[in-house]
Design goal:
By secondary structure, the protein is mainly α. It folds into 2 domains: 71 residues, Orthogonal Bundle (Helix Hairpins); 91 residues, minor pseudopilin epsh fold (3-Layer(bab) Sandwich), CATH 3.55.40.20. The protein is built from 7 helices and 3 strands, in the order αααααβββαα. A 3-stranded antiparallel sheet has the order 2-1-3. A hairpin with a 5-residue loop joins β1 and β2.
Length: 193
């Protein structure tokens, strides 16, 4: 994916009543766009990196020829940019059920319902800001885990499948401090399963 902000795959109000239009607008236009803008600012010092795709930067983070402080910035800002792309796409109302994903989930978690319960528990109990992830690991098996801040599974050699943002900016305007309610409501937005 190029280093440019992809359009949201839906209108701001398309996720109502589970995610309000104001949250989507602020989350996308301020937070998501902000990560990309700041990342591009860091990459001004490394013109050769500006032509690479974000996945490449994150997968090869430890071998980039950048200062240590800029490596941390690329990890945080690049992760923030990429993670949000995965987050928005999973909630695309145009998505259809993914029979291959459902089959893999049933194989690796027993059932879609068991997967949802484990994933929800992980998201609800993640301490502080971060993400809950469903990924394919290096062996092609699905696994779930949470990562702090804007850390990204790509830096671990894993392929993101589904991401839930549990930073407060993802839910605070509508749910206040009730992350559990947000996590439960979020499943209504996932059409893949």
């Amino acid at each position: 994916m190029k280093l440019e902000l992809p359009a949201l795959p839906f209108e701001y109000n398309a996720l109502e009543p589970y995610m309000d239009a104001e949250t989507v607008e602020v989350h996308y236009d301020k937070h998501h766009r902000g990560y990309l803008t700041k990342l591009l600012g860091v990459l001004e010092n490394y013109p050769e990196l500006k032509t690479r795709e974000i996945e490449d930067l994150l997968k090869n983070l430890n071998t980039l020829e950048v200062s240590d402080s800029d490596r941390v910035k690329i990890k945080n800002l690049g992760g923030g940019f990429y993670n949000h792309v995965v987050f928005w796409e999973a909630m695309n109302p145009e998505n259809e059920k993914n029979s291959e994903l459902i089959s893999d989930i049933e194989k690796d978690f027993g059932s879609v319902e068991e997967f949802k319960q484990k994933f929800s528990q992980l998201a609800k109990t993640h301490f502080g800001s971060g993400w809950a992830w469903l990924v394919k690991n290096g062996e092609g098996k699905l696994e779930i885990y949470s990562l702090p801040n804007q850390d990204c599974p790509l830096t671990l050699g894993h392929t993101p499948v589904l991401a839930l943002d549990v930073w407060e900016h993802a839910y605070y305007l509508k749910y206040k401090n009730k992350r559990d309610e947000f996590v439960d409501a979020w499943w209504n937005l996932i059409k893949l399963l």
